Amino acid sequence: MKKRRKIRRVVWLLGCLLGAWSVSGQDFVPKREFRAAWIATLSGIDWPSRAGLSVEQQQREYIRILDTLVACGMNAVIVQVRPKADAFYASKTEPWSQFLTGTRDGDPGYDPLAFMLEQAHRRGLELHVWLNPFRVTTGEDLSALSPRSVGRRHPEWLVRYVGRWYLDPGRYEVRSYLLSVVAEIVRGYDVDAIHMDDYFYPYPQGGQPFPDGKTYQRYGASLFDDVSQWRRDNVNRLIKGISDTIRALRPGVKFGISPFGIYRNASDDPSGSATRGLSNYDDLYADVVLWVREGWIDYVLPQLYWENGHSAADFGELLRWWGLHHGRSQLYIGHGVFNISPKGKNAVWRTAGEICRQVRMQRENPSAAGSAFYSARYLVGNAGGLADSLKTRYYRHPALVPAIPWLDPRAPLPPERVQVERTPQGMRVSWQAGRRESLGEADPPAQVRYYVVYRFSADQMVNINDASHIVARVWGDAPAEYTDASAPPGQVVYVVTSVSAAGVENEDFSVAAPAGDARGRKE
């Protein structure tokens, strides 16, 4: 027997004032906060631990990583699926990655990206696919590449720099090819976001110039007086092209960039940060501020891998600077947990204390909306006790990924027929997808991406803005049910809401309780 009732809007509004704080009132618990870890696949950094593992070994390792991240309170993973013009997905144009198979033309025996998506979504995690656009090799030998590799099929597109081969960003054919790579993924997989990091033009080494002079003379010299301007324009065209491609194919898919932490130094530009180091704009030719200003990307995740007090790149200064220059894009902060080393020379990094301080600072900055940690292996290994700190304090309550309402401001339909049943396994909460009243609506609702299940004791005010009451995120294509094995003794009630791909939550909800139980405090 189902019991439900509508909660008046006044209760919801009062909850807005109180709900951002945990029940203890001590630590801030935002309901919306990006919490992610990078899973790097290049050379076995995070996964797979080595090339050529069996399907079962690869999948077991990946599941272990996900389960650790879920226990740490994460709500997203950023997985490298194209480390060097190769694929961790079934591609018609690019070869399987040797980091999977261990051989040049091997077949992993399954579709890793399909598996990774299914496992991430089953655990309520978004999956952001991470692509490296221009890198083709990490060594000299092109003959080691698969004949299917773009480097073998189009050697005229390549540039050699300091012992490595790269696709030449100045060639139109290269940019067009990369757009087709993005399109293949967006069409073929239910990804939550396309993600790129800081590797556009390669980092300068040993004072050696990037050898693209012939391309510049052919394509850029008549349009740009300065090769640096031309290089930035090449990357700008790629970023805008990717943005347009995603919007045309699947508008709900997000596009994020994780740039190097310094955009420009104040010594080169008065509006730059008080830092001294390489920069996106001047050295990598990545005009990230233009991208956020033009609305080409949905989130920017600068890699602030230095500590507070660093002489050349202070974390606090860079957090402040990015907080003023992220445009409408969501701002997330990248933390260098790889720095943690109990026996390291820098005492700041001998424990997780610096990262915990950075998480607190990110939360205190009104412009920042979350964190990502590089990389997953250090959370799996509990470097400096960081995983413990996240589990027991900072991320002890779940959070939803921040909304990107400019992608689609519409809310999905709320779920219907929410029911709760006591079972030997725990409280079983079930629901049905909402139904449209009219197929002819001018502005139909958004599709449901996932459902959020909240739990309250029967004597509590129902407040969906209090993150401490979230018990599960259930993907929209999964069975519409959740068994709460950790429900406390006594009477409890549940609320289920729906969330779109853009993160917009339908605020219409009803309260459900097991037959015979109370249904939550009346206002």
Automatic annotation (TrEMBL):
**Which domain of life does this protein belong to?**
Bacteria
The region annotated as signal peptide is 1-25
Query: What's the protein here called?
Result: Family 10 glycosylhydrolase
Which key words are in the record?
Answer: Signal
Q: Where is the Glycosyl hydrolase-like domain?
A: 33-349
InterPro entries documented for this protein: Divisome_Glycosyl_Hydrolase (IPR052177), GH (IPR017853), GHL10 (IPR003790)
Q: Is Signal included in the keywords of this UniProt record?
A: yes
- Organism, scientific name: Candidatus Merdimorpha stercoravium
